[in-house]
Amino acid sequence: MATIVLGVGNTLLTDEGVGVHVVERLRREHSDLDAVEYLDGGTLSFTLAGPMADADQLIVIDAAELKAAPGTVTLFENEAMDDYLGRGKRRSVHEVSLLDLLAIAHLTDSLPARRALIGIQPQELGWGDVPSPAVAAAIPAACDMTLDLIRKWRQ
Question: Which CATH number is 3-154's, of 2.40.128.20, 4.10.480.10, 3.40.50.150, 3.40.50.1450?
Answer without folding.
Answer: 3.40.50.1450
